[in-house]
Structure formats: structure tokens, C-alpha cells
Backbone:
């Protein structure tokens, strides 16, 4: 292992651990935000949204399709405002809910958990794609296997991808994840 | 039949089928559980 690769590995590792373990909350105080259920602007928004739908409702006879649809919309609007109000969400002065992305635990379901889920799912997709390409490169005509997918093998690879963080870590520690610099082609500079 | 299966296995056809499945799944989730602004705490 060259010294350069060692430095690079160390840099990657420290960046990775920084992202994982740097959970010190920013501890911002949200003095300009109020809980949505106490916010008068939030209530005003609910009332004006319902009012708008009710004004449209007046244009139709009660048994028409449009009236049924609008009644459903009114119920959905009320349910939405109730759900946002009952959750931990904070509202700005204009009455719109704000997502707190500082990483603190009491607001984790607004950004941290969906963010981790996003990274997990995109990682899953990328990981199984890489795994399939690596499988295809071992077969006899690898280009054809990239255009005409071998569905049974692709499916089994897709289903086995849920452990991708473990597998990626394992490949990283054994040196299989990153390609050596001398194997990466460069255009002349 | 084999040729037809091969046609179904080509990348453009597969991605069309797969993305249709995924988008219908997401539409279904949004139909059952509308307006998900935050991750629900059960």
C-alpha cells in the first residue's frame, strides 16, 4: 500500500466518521418560531383554505360529483392541519410549518430520519447496480449482459442489497471498494 | 417465446416496467397516507 493511498484512506475514513459521529446538536433556540397549534397565522391559513373550498362548493348542487370532491378536499385539508398541529412542528410568523434540520433529536422525524432513509435507499440502488455490473464483467460477453439484463440474477442481487452498508464497509476494509490509482486511466495532461 | 423474453429483458423495457411499478407504489402510499411532511411517529 503506497503512502498516498494510506493518506487517502485515512482522509476518507475521517470524513466518514465525522459525518456519522458528529451529532452534536446545533442547539439553536427557535425564538422566532411557535408550535403550529399555538400559531394564530396557522389557524388563519386553515380557515382561509377551507373558506376558499367552501366558496367553490357553493357553485355546485350538493349531489354533484364536484361537490363530493370538494367535500373530500375540505375534510383532507382539515385533517392535514390537525395532523401538522398535533405534531412537534414549529411554524413561522406567516403560519407555515418549518422543518428543523439541525439534527437535534426532538425534531429528528422532520429531517434526520427521512434523510437517513433517503441515503439508505439510494445507497441500496447504487450498490446493487454496482454489484450487477461487476457480475456482468465476469461473464463471457459482458456488454450484452449490460444491455439484456439477466433478470433472475439481477433480482437476487437486488434483494440481497439491504445489507449494503455492512457489505460496503467490508469491501472498504479489504480494499475491494476503491480501485488503485494506477488502474484508473487518465488522459495525458 | 424465448425471443420475446429476451425483448422483455432489455434495459429500456425493464426500466419502463420497473419505474411504472415504483411510481404506482409511491402514488399508492400518497393515496393511503396523504401530505406526509414529516416522518410519522407511531
Residues:
Amino acid at each position: 500500500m503506497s503512502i498516498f493511498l494510506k493518506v487517502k484512506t485515512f482522509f476518507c475514513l475521517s470524513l466518514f466518521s465525522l459525518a456519522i459521529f458528529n451529532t452534536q446538536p446545533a442547539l439553536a433556540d427557535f425564538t422566532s418560531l411557535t408550535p403550529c397549534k399555538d400559531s394564530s397565522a396557522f389557524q388563519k391559513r386553515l380557515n382561509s383554505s377551507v373558506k376558499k373550498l367552501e366558496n367553490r362548493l357553493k357553485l355546485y348542487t350538493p349531489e354533484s360529483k364536484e361537490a363530493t370532491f370538494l367535500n373530500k378536499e375540505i375534510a383532507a385539508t382539515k385533517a392535514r392541519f390537525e395532523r401538522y398541529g398535533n405534531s412537534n412542528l414549529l411554524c413561522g410568523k406567516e403560519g407555515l410549518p418549518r422543518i428543523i434540520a439541525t439534527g437535534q433529536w426532538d425534531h429528528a422525524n422532520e429531517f434526520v430520519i427521512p434523510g437517513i432513509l433517503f441515503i439508505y435507499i439510494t445507497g441500496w440502488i447504487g450498490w446493487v447496480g454496482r454489484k450487477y455490473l461487476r457480475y456482468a464483467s465476469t461473464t463471457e460477453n459482458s456488454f450484452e449482459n449490460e444491455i439484456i439484463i439477466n433478470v433472475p440474477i439481477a433480482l437476487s442481487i437486488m434483494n440481497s442489497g439491504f445489507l449494503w452498508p455492512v457489505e460496503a464497509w467490508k469491501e472498504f476494509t479489504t480494499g475491494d471498494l476503491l480501485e488503485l490509482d494506477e488502474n484508473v486511466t487518465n488522459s495525458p495532461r | 417465446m424465448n425471443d420475446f423474453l429476451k425483448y422483455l429483458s432489455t434495459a429500456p423495457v425493464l426500466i419502463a416496467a420497473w419505474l411504472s411499478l415504483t411510481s404506482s407504489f409511491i402514488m399508492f402510499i400518497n393515496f393511503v397516507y396523504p401530505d406526509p411532511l414529516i416522518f410519522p411517529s407511531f
